[in-house]
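Protein of interest.
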Amino acid sequence: IYTGVFQAVVILIVAQFLRHPARQPQPAKSAGGSSVLGQHQFTTFEMLRTPQFFVLYASFVMMATGGLLVTANAGSIAKAWGIPATALAAATSLNALANGGSRIFWGWASDHIGRKPVLIASLVGTALGSLLTGLAGTLWLLFAGRIIDGISGASVSVAQAAVADLAPAEQRARLLGLLGAAFGLGFVAGP
């Protein structure tokens, strides 16, 4: 627990001092060009006053906690369900493969239909996958839950892209560091 607390504190402190390179002048956009999400560039303190940032932050904490619960309790889960621990390890590997394989699609989708719908779909999919994993009494349902969770696990990338869209260049590193600290907090809150 002390390692997780230490990690969260260090990330929060370092995030306050991170700086992005100086802003470069942007070329004028054509009338038919795509617009940047939102027109207002939020500072760190403005972003911290928005409920959306805290929803993202809470989502990150819950994802880290939930993912760690499966990993930390793998032995007892496998024993309770009467499946070999290697099957649970395979399900975890399928989760990672599905996650890595789907990120390109989710990045494309968030650029074309927007960050918010993709983030909502991703969080709903993660919740559904976690629910299936928790209720799984059979091996195929366990695999299905972990694969669904993996496929829909793009919320981290999309949330980071949304923060990058909304924050000016000099604030991005700090805000992304704060989002990253949510994982440290999730690891502390987990098992």
